[in-house]
Amino acid sequence: QAQLVESGGGVVQPGGSLRLSCAASGINFINFGMHWVRQSPGKGLEWVTFIRYNGNDKYYADSVKGRFTVSRDNSKNILFVQMNSLRPEDTAVYYCARDLVAADGTRYFDLWGRGTLVTVSP
Amino acid sequence: DIQMTQSPSSVSASVGDRVTITCRASQDISSWLAWYQQKPGKAPKLLIYSASSLQSGVPSRFSGSGSGTDFTLTISSLQPEDFATYYCQQAKNFPPYTFGQGTQLEMK
Q: How far apart are CA A97 and CA A110, in angstroms?
C-alpha cells in the first residue's frame, strides 16, 4: 500500500543542521512532485518546500529560503530536506506529502507521512 | 500571500448533527481550495479538493462548496470518527500554499 515514512528528526541547537528523509513505498515515486509541510506544536500547518518529480524545479517558503534545500533520489524513492542555520521557530513536526495535480491544474497534498519531530533548543 | 480565515475556531456538536465550517480567502481563489481532516497525533487527510471534489475513499457525508472567497465544508450527519480538526488550503497562488488556522470539532 502507498506509504511515506519520515526520519531524521531530533533535537538540535540553534544554528545547527539536520537532514530529514522521506522514504516512499507502494507508489511510483518518480511520477510525483513532493512537498514538505510542517506543524509547530499546537499550531496550524505551514507549507515548507516543493520539488518537481524530476527534481528540476524547487520552491521554498520565505521563512526557510536560503536555509533549507530539498532534493530527491528517484533511484531509491527517497525525498530529503537539508535544514541549516536552524532557529527555535523551526521547531515542528515535519511531514512529507505527495503532490496531487487536479484536473484544473491545481495542486494539493493527497498522501502524507506520519511526520518527524524537529526541536531546535539550546 | 493569500490569507485563509476559518470560522468558527472551534465547534461543539453531537453525533448525527449537521455541521458547517467556513473558510474565507483574502482574495479571489476561484474554486482552488482543499479541506483536510487531522486527528491528534496523526497526519492530515485530504477530504475535498477543487472546492467540491470528494477525494477517493472519503465518505459522502462530507461535501464542499463555494467559489471566489467564501467556502464551506459540510458534514451531513456527524459520526464519532469525525471529531477532529479541519483545515482549508488555498491552491491558487503557489508558492506559497497557505492554510487556514484550523477548526476544532468537539463532542458536545
A: 7
Helices (H), B1-108: none
- For residue B97, give the DSSP letter: P
User: Of A47, A61, A104, which is closest to B50 when you measure between CB atoms?
Assistant: A104
**Res B94: pLDDT:** 82
Q: Is B50 close to A113, i.e. CB distance below 8 A?
A: no
B44 interaction partners in chain A (CB closer than 8 Å)? 45, 95, 109, 112
Q: What is the DSSP string of B49-71?
A: ETTTEEPTT--TTEEEEEETTEE
C-alpha cell at A50: 516543493
Out of B43, B91, B92, the one facing A112 most closely (by C-beta) is: B43
Give tens-digit pLDDT for A73-86. 999 999 999 999 99
pLDDT digits (tens, 9 = 90+) for B36-56: 999 998 999 999 999 999 999
- Cis-peptide into A14, omega within 30 deg: no
